[in-house]
Amino acid sequence: MVTAHWGRALQDSYQLVNILQFVFEVAPVLFFFAFGMTLEHFLRKPLARRIESHLKLFILAVVHSLYGQQTPLSSDFFMFLFAARLLFDIHSQISAANRVLVAAFVLALCGAWVALPFPIAYDFFMPSFPGWFPVFPWILFVAAGRAYSRHRQDPRTAAVALFGLSLALFDALILGNRLSKWPLSPDYALLFASGTALAFIVLDRIRWPALLPWRTIELLSGNLLLATALHYVAVAVVTSTHHRLAPLLVAWVSERYLAPAFSLEYIVLAFAAVLILIGLVRGAVATAGWLDSRGILGTLDGLFPAIAVVGIVLYAGSLHLDAGLRLAGLPLLCSLALLMVYKRA
Fold this sequence. Notes:
- Keywords: Membrane, Transmembrane, Transmembrane helix.
- The chain crosses the membrane at residues 19-39, 73-88, 100-118, 124-145, 157-176, 188-203, 224-246, 266-285, 297-317, 323-342.
- It is built from 17 helices and no strands.
- The protein has helices at 2-6, 15-24, 27-37, 39-43, 47-69, 77-93, 96-115, 120-125, 135-151, 156-174, 186-205, 214-221, 224-252, 258-293, 296-302, 304-321, 330-342.
- The model has no long low-confidence stretch (mean pLDDT 84).
- By secondary structure, it is mostly helical.
- 77% of the residues lie in helices and 0% in strands.
């Protein structure tokens, strides 16, 4: 995600950058799929803890909406996670008969999404507030992740995923239907949901070399909400670096080699952004551990609602006065994400 976001500062004419961005922008699909895989664990928690976790995620989503869209409500990343998890929680509490009705309703929505000319059905579900992730159809990736977690040991799971991947490729490459992330097309959803399931199946069965940085992978996977918040800091750093380097590249590199030069810059800064993100997550977790050992973090966690309300009011007010103060919300966003991750509800 961090590599995809910073690349938006570059021109669309750089083909290699566009290809790499297309690959890296699969990050939300992977995240939502993995989020679905963890739902069973969340739904087994006591009701009081689930309600507390829903409220905290909603607060985090409001701050993120202010940061990303300058409005407290949007269909952006964290707000989508809040809505999706809340809907699955409600779904788990209703009767079996009502679950059948919900399944029929979702199937009807999917049928309209596939059958109607694209993107009529998608536009119908776009909310009146801004954002990139309307609940439908993006919630299908969460549903796919939950289904995979339930049937990952079933040998038929691989066959179903492979069939879905083949069908999406046939429709896109042979029939010529477009793959679109925004607005989300059925082919894109089927291709990457099936591909993600196959990737997890492969990962479940491969013994990786001991040289792979498993501690780093475990660090990021165990702190995904925190990493998502902190990645904006890494993006801001490398984007600022790019704005300083770009005039130098234009002045020193001939026009013939300018596109390769900027493509190389994208790769180097993308790698740097990942390293910065890893360093930020490590530093944040270490700081939280130090604060926790002195009892400070527990106090802050108890004050979470008060801190959030005061922070949201001040941040929203500052954005109303000056939209250029957008970056001032990053410390609040990252602090709330750290409390959510380190002091899980």
